[in-house]
Amino acid sequence: MLNGKNTPFVLQKRSDVAFRSMGGAGSREGIGAGFMYKGGVSVDNVNLRFPRYVLVAVIKGRGYYVDDHGEKYPLGPGSCFQRLPLKSHSNYIDPDSEWSEFYLEAGPLLYQALSSMLVIRAGSPVSSLPLDDELKWQVWDFIKALRAADEDMLPELVSRCVGLLGECHRRMHAPPETKERALVFEEACRVLGSDFDQHCDLNKFCRKYGVGYEYFRKMFKARCGISPWQYRVRRRLDLACGMLGSPDIPIAEIAAKLGYSSPYEFSAQFKRYIGTSPLHFREGKRD
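-> structure tokens emitted (287 positions)
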């Protein structure tokens, strides 16, 4: 196969997979990916409790997924289901449907980290994943690189795996949008992440860009996993953490620069979100 953004991806009736273990002896960590053809298969897995996280995207075929409560979810082209570490599930395939899939795999600790950062969102076990040839080529290139990589190249490939998982989850959870709506999201992030000493009027922002506030709020949360105001708080506290690293800037001055009405308001919000006071954070202590 020839790679290229404008080259159509041609499905092969064969499987190409790669997995690389990482860590010390006994580690279950690692990354993997593969394209799999399962024509003629009817039962894929029954009550499987897989040790690692796997995201499976259905390219062709029909079937259904059964979660740990016995609920069935239909599967077809563009469906995506998740195998969560050690969580029981089953999936079945129409043997005449020429089933083809690609998957991305991550170890349990990497899965936990990505879940906590909302790169992976394991809410519904089955979702819709818009597929295109570019994404398939990216997964194919990752498989080839993973198979051929020297050990010292694996950390770099972890970042590629994270990027692919992030792209898949973004497509799964973000509502369909035009280029203009994508630019609205980018501009919203810029506005929410700056000028903390000034009032941020999101209703005015929405009027300026011709979007309803409720639509904007839902679109933003689907993209980021948190509300616009939670995003603003996070960005403000990120900046606060950086400023607290400079011992010559008084905490009261930091609070004023970041738009807090008083050092007490700043300290209360900082402790609520970060888990310790600004002073203890600066001194490397824990409350």
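The domain at 16-173 is CATH 2.60.120.280 (Jelly Rolls).
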